[in-house]
Write a structure and sequence with these properties.
The chain is α+β, with helices and mostly antiparallel strands and 285 residues long. It contains ten helices and four strands. It folds into two domains: 2-194, no CATH class; 200-271, Alpha-Beta Plaits. Strands 2-3-1-4 form a four-stranded antiparallel sheet, covered by helices on one side. The chain is elongated and about 80 Å long. It starts with a helix and ends in a 14-residue tail after the last strand. It is a multi-pass membrane protein.
Length: 285
Amino acid sequence: MKNKKIRFLLCLGGVLLSSLLQTYVIKAFIQPSNLLSSGFTGVAILIDKIASLYGHSISTSVCILVLNIPVALACYKSISKKFTLLSTIQFFMTSLLLKVCEFNPLFNDLILNVVFGGFLYGISVVLALKSNASTGGTDFIALYVSNKINRSIWEQVFIFNALILCIFGYMFGWIYAGYSIVFQFISTKTISTFHHRYERVTLQITTQDPENVVDNYVDHFRHGISCIQGYGGFSKKKMYLLITVISSYEISDAVHCIQEVDPHAIVNVLRTEQFYGGFYQQPMD
């Protein structure tokens, strides 16, 4: 119970840091450069810009809440209550911080704003994802679909964002839409680089104590494991090769589980390009 509370507090801290960083990027990089961010935050900014053409003003902060709350309610049962709660805190805090915080631009150069802003925006999303949350909106949708098909769809999210940017470019100028596409491409690639929940790896474990290693592994993980008998080419001793496929984020836990039983076990981690058959994907808490 104590560990769960500590984990929740760490996740909450990551979510708050994500909100602060996202707000900083919007205030210091996106708005001064007339860029458009990704997801529902970008849609909220676009709605405000369109309203300004007709002499009206629609608060970006309010619009973020209006767009995200229905999606959060829809995903409440289909994803996870804890995940939805933390994600709601994230976009609510972003909305609040946009109202109360002001940040000065870091660069006066448009290209630097695009490059560094895109990278930092992607990091803000990664912080939320690592904290078992999201920044709401299209992240909710992306994670819901990814959980169903067991692979990342951030590239498809980028296509959706590009379509929004086409509207932005048509109404406010293609040069800023073009820079915004580069901004979103960098942020999307940053997310794909640092968020590996749906990547799989193959573990090849060489051990002389297969039964205990397998028993301990099966107790902690819901993945199959195969055992092949052989011998060491150098030592000529009987050896066993264990093979299993896991998600990349489980590597450290799996290696610890194996070495806990056999400190002399050799673990080789191989990237799995394709996998066919049943695979257990741990649900989000």
